[in-house]
Amino acid sequence: MEWTTTQTSGDSADNKVSSHYQRTRVIVEMIFCAVIIFTSFTGNALVVFVACKDSTLRTTTNIFIQNLALTDISMAIFNMPFWMASIYHDNWIFSQLVCEYQAVTLFTFGSASILTMALISINRYFKIVHPQIYHNYFGSKVIVCIYCLLSWVVGVIFATPPIYGWGNYQYHRKFMTCSVLWDLKHISFVAIFLGGFVNAVTITIFVCYYKIYREVKQSSRNVAAYANNVTSETDIKILKSTFTVVCGYIICWMPVSVVCLTETLGGFLPQACYGVAIFLMYSSCCINPIIYGILNPQFRRAFIQVFKCKSFHHDNSSNQDERQENASATLPSLAIRRIASANKIS
C-alpha cells in the first residue's frame, strides 16, 4: 500500500513537470509565432509602401520585390493566424472547410513566394550578365506583371492536387497546420513538387547568383588598376550579399521540403524536426524584406526617409545613381555600376 502511494506521488510529480514543460513550450512557440506574424506584415507592408511612394522605385526589377512582399503579407494575414491558434490549442479548432482553405493558401502563397525569388535571381542575372538582351525579357512592366501573375497561377495549381484525386487536405498535428497530405500512391506528384519544383528553384537561384558574382568579380579585375582597395572591398560585399540570398532561401525552405519528403516515403522524424521546419518556412516571410529590401541601397534610402519623415524627392543625379544601384539590386558594387554605365542599363 505504501509502495502504491509512493508510485502515485511520483506519477503526479512527473505529470506536473510534463504539464509545466508543455505550458512553457506553448508560450515560447506563441511568442515566436507572434513575432513572425508581426514582422512579416510590417516589414513587407513597408516595402510595398515605399515602393508605391517613391517614384524611383517603380522599376521592373522592383515589381518582383513588391510581388514577393505581397505573397508574404498574404501568408501573414490569411494563413499564419490559424497556425498560431493551433499552437495555442494544440489542436485544430476550426471546420474542415477552413482547414482546406488554410492548406490551399499555404501552398499558393508559399509556391508563389519561392517562384518570385527565382524570378528575381533570373532578372538580376540577365540585367548584369546579359544586359544586351535584358530588355527582350524584362523591358516591359506588363511582361514583368505577367511573370508575377504566373507565379500565383502556378501556386494555385500546386495547391489543388486533391481536386484531381492526389492527396487530401488534412490537419497535420506535427506541423500544427493544415496541408496537402500524400501517401506513396501519390509519390509521382510529391516527386514533381518537392524533387522537381523546389530543387529546380534552388538550383536556379544558386546558379544565377554564382554567375552574377563571377561576372562582377571579373569586371572588378578590369578596373583593379584604378581602385585596388575598392574592388577587393566590393568582392567581399558581393560575396556576402550572394551568400545571404542563397543561404536565406536554403535555410528557410529546404528543411520543410526534406521533412515532407521523408514523411511521404515512410521515414520517421522526431517532433522537433517538424516544429523547426515549419517555423523556418514561415520565417522566410519576415527575412525577405531584409534580404530583398533593406540590403537594397535604393530601398534602404527610402526606408530611412520614411522614418525621418522626409519627402520623397531626389535630384536628377541622385535618381540616376539609384537606378544604377537598383540594376545590381543587393550587389552595390563599383564594378556593376561601371557595367551598367557602359551598357546604358536603365
Count of the separate structural domains? 1
Order of helices and strands: HHHHHHEEHHHHHH
CATH class: Mainly Alpha
Low-confidence stretches: 1-5, 311-346
Give a topology summary.
Elements: H1 2-53, H2 60-78, H3 80-89, H4 96-129, H5 131-138, H6 141-159, E1 168-172, E2 177-181, H7 187-222, H8 228-264, H9 271-294, H10 297-307, H11 316-327, H12 334-343
Helix pairs in contact: 1-2, 1-3, 1-9, 1-10, 2-4, 2-6, 2-9, 4-5, 4-6, 4-7, 7-8, 7-12, 8-9
Domain G-protein coupled receptors family 1 profile: 43-292
Main location: membrane
GO molecular function: G protein-coupled receptor activity
Comma- or semicolon-separated keywords:
single chain, 346 residues, Rhopdopsin 7-helix transmembrane proteins, two-stranded antiparallel sheet, globular, disordered C terminus
Written overview of the protein:
By secondary structure, this protein is mostly helical. The chain has one domain: Up-down Bundle (Rhopdopsin 7-helix transmembrane proteins), CATH 1.20.1070. 79% of the residues lie in helices and 3% in strands. The protein is built from twelve helices and two strands, in the order ααααααββαααααα. It has helices spanning 2-53, 60-78, 80-89, 96-129, 131-138, 141-159, 187-222, 228-264, 271-294, 297-307, 316-327, 334-343; strands spanning 168-172, 177-181. It has a two-stranded antiparallel ribbon with strand order 1-2. A hairpin with a 4-residue loop joins strand 1 and strand 2 (177-181). Helix 1 packs parallel to helix 9 and helix 8 runs antiparallel to helix 9 (271-294). The longest helix has 52 residues, at 2-53. The radius of gyration is 24 Å and the shape is globular. It starts with a helix and ends with a helix. Keywords: G-protein coupled receptor, Membrane, Receptor, Transducer, Transmembrane, Transmembrane helix. This is Visual pigment-like receptor peropsin.
